[in-house]
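Team,

Forwarding the record for the chain on the shared tracking sheet. I've put the sequence and predicted structure together so nobody has to dig through attachments.
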Amino acid sequence: MKIKSNIAISDNGFVFNPVTGESFTANPTGLEIMNQMRRGASAPQIVETLCNMFQVEPTQAERDLQDFIEMMRQYHLLTYDEE
């Protein structure tokens, strides 16, 4: 799974979906997750980055990652390789 290519993400966390016209604001953790996903990082790599950047335990970083991915699914911001 990855972020759809038409989703615009600004450096300050503003996210825009041109298909629906919806916009969102991501916090620093969410912005880092999206940036890492765009770079093709794996879930373990993203967790490691979150731990280093925000001084959180791996279990917290994993939970934050899963929660954010679920939110992105709900807002139809993700695509899957099979599609």
